[in-house]
Every structure is written in C-alpha cells, then in structure tokens.
Amino acid sequence: MSKYTFPKTFFWGTASSGPQTEGRFDGDGKGDSIWDYWYAKEPERFFNQVGPDKASYNYKLFKEDVQLMKATGHNSFRTSIQWSRLIPNGVGEVNPEAVTFYNNYIDELITNGIEPFINLYHFDMPMFLQEKGGWLNRETVDAYVTFAKTCFELFGDRVKYWFTHNEPIVPVEGGYLYDFHYPNEKNFKHAVQVGFNETLASALAIKAYHETQDGKIGIILNLTPSYPRDENNPEDVKAAQIADVFFNRSFLDPAIYGTFPKELIAIVKELDIVPKHTKTDLEIIKKNTIDLLGINYYQPRRIKVKENHAEANPQNPMPEDYFDNYDMPGKKMNPYRGWEIYEKGIYDIMINVRDNYGNIPCYISENGMGVEGEERYVNANGQIEDDYRIEFIKDHLRYLHQAIQEGANCLGYHMWTCMDNWSWTNAYKNRYGLIAVDLDKKGKRTIKKSGYFFKTLADKNGFED
Ligand code: BGP
C-alpha cells in the first residue's frame, strides 16, 4: 500500500468564477459583460441555447454553497469578482449591491474557516469597455487598474490571496484567434496587442497591490506542457518549443521574470505585429512580478514540425504557421471535452517551474474533468457516483505528490469546480463539480461521491492506495 501525504497547511479546495456561477437577478445592479451581450445576440452559439443569466444561482445561494464547501472539505476557495457587477460600466460608479454581495460572500467563507482566493479577471470584459475595443484599447488597462484598486480597498482587509487574471491566453485565443469568445476576431496582430495589454494591466495591479496591501498577489495560467511527436527529431523539438513560447511562456516569463521570451519578440518583429507600448510599460512589467503562481492543468499539447503548409495565409498569419498539432495515436481522452488526459503533465509542469522559474511558490489552481450526462450515474439515493472523477483526482495527485517530494514548491490543489457551473459556450454540457446542480429545480444542489471523497482527502491531508 502506498500513502500520499501532502505538506501541512496544504490548500484543499476548488475554483470557480463569478460569471460562471452567480447569475443575474432583479435589482442586483449588474451591467452587461461580453457574455451577456454575445448570448443575447447569438444564443445559438451556446450549448442548448443556455446563457449566463441564471448560471448556478450562487448570487442567491452563496450561504448554502459555503456550507457545502465545508461538507466537501474545503479550507480554501477561489472565485472572481465580476467587473461588470462591481462597476457596471467598467469605469465610474461602484454598484452598492455588488459590494454587499461580495462582502457577505467573503465574510461567510472566512467565518466558516475557508480562505478566500479572489481573482480579478475571468474572461468577463464589461460590454461598455468592449465597445471601445476592450483589451485592444490602452484605456481598458487604466480602467482595470482602477477596478483592481477598488477591489483591494473594499476587500483587501480580509482577502489575502489575489490573482490578476485567470488564463490570460484564453481571451487572446478565444476572442482574437480561434473564434470561441466575443468579439470573434481572427487577427494575430490584435491577439498580440491584447496579450500585451493584459500583461501590462497585471503588472500595474501588482504594483498597486504591493504599495498598499500586505497579502500575496499572483496570476493564474493554464500551462499546457508542449511535447514533441519525436523527442529525437530536432525539428519536432523546435516546433514544440515554439508552441511552448506562444501558449505558455508568453505569460509565464513576464509574470515571473518581467520579460518576454526572445523567440516571441523575434516572431512578432518578423511579422511586423509588435504591440504598441512604451519604454515605461516595459519597465513596469519588469519591476512588478508575481508572488504566487496559480497553475491550471487540464491537457498537454502534442506538437510536430509544420508539415501542412497549404493552410498558411501570409495575409493572415497564425501561430499554427510555426508548428502542427500532432494527433498522437492511443492517447487517453476525455471524450466529452475532447481533451487528452495525461496525468504526468502535472509533474512535468512542477519540475519546469522548480528548475526554470526559481521554484516560485505555486499551487494547482484548476484540474478537473467535465463529463456529459452524469445523470446516468445517479444511484438510488440520488447521488451521482462519479468514480471516474475520483480516479482522475488520485491519478493526478500521485504525480503532484512525487513532484513535491522532489522539491516542487506547491502549496495546494484546487479542483475545477465546486458546484457544476456554466462553461461559456459549452454552457451546462459538461459537468465538472464535486456537487451537482439541478437546473430544473432552481439550482438544487446534491453532493456527488467525489465530494465525499474530497472531504476525506482534505481531512487526512492525503490518501492511501
Ligand atoms: C478553464 C477556465 C474555466 C473553466 C474550465 C473548464 O479554462 O478557467 O473557466 O471553464 O477551464 O473548461 P470548459 O468550461 O471550457 O470545459
């Protein structure tokens, strides 16, 4: 029998976000985000045409939710403050209903012994700012910094773990390269500008935080280890390194070292798509780096040298002009999400951070498995028996444990997610929660088998098998 015990004070919990859980209700004063706008405009882009309007009713049910977090072993929990809820137009008036809601939610968590981790931006641009260009517009950076400062002033006395962004590469990919977020552009130049402005906004928020507050501030990145098809083929290896630069190091390097990878700089120069910036911007990015790294891990990236040149269009360059994705035979898949499951990736990320990023304090800020049709696993007592999720957790934790044994500075493990929630255009297709949400019964909650497993895991600070 093997025993996996994690460090004392390890963070056990889950992550979620405001737009995916809260919902919108009469009198709450929330303004439109890009999601409210896009859903109203093109509901058919969302699975079963379900929008973000009710989400998981967390705005109404947060007290019950905190009790359920306790029942499932949480000592910490992440959510995000919706910018368009706190400041409905993105700039200007603060919404008093939002202040009351977030104060009550944060206080409820703390009273129940759950450390709140708060993220500032989770894909949810206020529509008012998007109309003026969103992250393409430098004014959005200033508006974001004001939003961040407002959050620190209002909640910083109690919240000691802050994050500037969740997965900042995703708005770049979804909104400006691959058409899965509003504004659905395919424009590499814009994509690069958006990424740069997000990085600058993050550094400015970190600066403001360190000047006035005493907790920790970081960023949450979805790291997708980039594996070459053939490790002995230098061309495959080079292609995998370029994919790593685009999708991981583009945010990881500035977050930790305050600089952009030289390979990335060379490519944007070659393509003449260097983002607009000043010398001062670069100094700000250089000086204001993170205290703590959140790592979301779902899937690796398999890469081979570019073989298919036919699709490249010089008028409209794309990252894929530099590599091909490799469909590795025999890989283990989550068929519902279409993502590969590769447990050792979590270990490889940790070792990379240990060896190449100064072993900065980090934690797993998301890891999880979205499954469609979980109703078929309901037992006679109404509980979903999601043994596949329990196996998924254990399979990843064994590798995480090994990395910690080998010196990785990992402070915790958060699952995605607590309650089943609204997954952007996938809406409620794939369920990720430790707790089921019945949308036909106004969000009625039922703890899944994995929720009870997680409670034991957290109580014992590990598991045996
Ligand atoms: C991450 C996001 C989450 C969440 C999760 C699951 O990328 O931070 O917001 O949604 O992935 O992915 P999806 O909802 O696309 O299935």
UniProtKB/TrEMBL annotation:
EC number: 3.2.1.86
GO cellular component, one term: cytosol
Uppermost EC category: hydrolase
Keyword Cell membrane listed: no
InterPro entries named among the record's database cross-references: GH, Glyco_hydro_1, Glyco_hydro_1_AS
One Pfam short name: Glyco_hydro_1
Transmembrane segments: none
One GO MF term: 6-phospho-beta-glucosidase activity
Source domain of life: Bacteria
Catalytic-site annotation from UniProt: 366
SUPFAM superfamilies attached to this UniProt entry: (Trans)glycosidases
Biological process terms in GO annotation: carbohydrate catabolic process
UniProt entry keywords in alphabetical sequence: Glycosidase, Hydrolase
Keyword check for Hydrolase: yes
Family from the record: Belongs to the glycosyl hydrolase 1 family.
Name this polypeptide is given: 6-phospho-beta-glucosidase GmuD
Gene: gmuD
